[in-house]
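Kindly go through the following sequence and its backbone structure tokens. Advise at your convenience whether the structure tokens fit the sequence:

___
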Amino acid sequence: MPSSGRDLLELGAPGRLPGALPVGVIDIGSNSVRLVVYEGLSRSLTPVFNEKALCGLGAHLATTGQLDDKAVKAALTALRRFRALADQMRVDVLHVIATAAAREARNGSQFIAEAEKICRVHVNVLTGADEARYAAYGVISGVHDPDGVVGDLGGGSLELIDVSGDELGQGVTLPMGVLRLRDVTGSNHHRAEEVVTEAISGCGVAAQCFGRDFYAVGGTFRSMAKLHMTRCNYPLHVMHNYTIEPDDAREFARDILRGKLGETIAKSSISDIRQELLPFGAVVLEGVLDVMRPRRIVVSALGVREGLLYGLLDDAQRAADPLIIAAEELAFLRSRSPRHARELVRWTDGLMKSLPIEETEEEARLRHAAVLLADIGWRAHPDYRGEQSVNIIANAAFVGIDHASRIFMALAVSYRHMGLSGDTLSERLRSLTTPRLHERARVIGAALRVAYLVTASMAGVLDETPIFREGDKLVLCLPEARSDLAGNRVAQRLRQMARVLSLIPEIRINGDG
């Protein structure tokens, strides 16, 4: 047994999943070169390191046909650092990919040869079809049951591909990345509008988007989403699955082109290089809205890199639910008893089946994730466990979940810790979810308050102590051997829960009849 803090710190990293082998991806794009290292190859990827260098490899490619010497030097310098970091982090497998700039430049093969020497692995130069497919895989891996068209906007090209569930359409690549647009038009936004409209209008995939979602992938789209969040003072700082309605998106794009967002840009911490490219991203967004007429814009933080790794999974791994996997992992890493967390899923299953509350398959899925996360804040002071849990759940790198569902889970766990009287989250955060989910969160939070008093967070109790509706009663059933658990606090919590459900509380000891 360790005898000091120093000994504890030398035991390793219990906050990391055991047995996971780090996997890395270096993405050599037309605008940036990025390294992302993930905890392991999984259906629910967890980044442990993420760094980019804005090198601008494709900055003058359209007019010169070559990668700029200065940009090449910057990119190779970044690759040396990234290879050293990968070695330092003991990355098990390092994937290196390159996109439009390296693919199209006359000196691209020379650059790739130098990159392979530095990275000591093969550099996979993706075709446009590859980029579209991996971008679609990225969206499939991160959006629950997607339906629409994925648009991956890079520096050199825009890839479009139809997705429906886990099915892909035929991808296309259009030569209208933001660096290329700036280059070929001499920074003329009006000329860029003509180029974009002509390219998208002539693309068959564009017509498939009408009335469906447009999934925006890529650094420029993410920068625009960050700017939009800043402008509307959005209360949740999570990029993935951020949505913008078409009319709002159109006005926003026009304001960028009119130069009306200077103050907002200054507040948004967008790099100078990205700021220069925002108008061309706005031109592409307008073209998407005018020609493709999507139902809404949905921002995906997952793209080609994550799609590449998703493509390496087998069918069973792909079919797994990334939200449930992430919740189980957090329960394992942070809760007092991971087994208790899993028992809560079954316990609340029994409760919900007995209640006259219709629960969809999706709502059951969200409930399962919420109860798995119910104890992740236990190491905090009791007065702050709810607040800490809410911050983790609302802002965690979850995928397969939209913002309304995040707030549902955060509400359920906050009610568990902070009580049922009043609202535990700010009005602005609560406004992101639906009244239906809000009420479900109160029911689940009330049930959790009962469960944790009965079990003291220990496994092996809940399966013996079911809770259910019987007529106009809410019954908590205890076996004779556990009858001493029926104290005043348990009775009080059961009364509170019964009040939420308009039922009469009863603690029943097995054998009472």
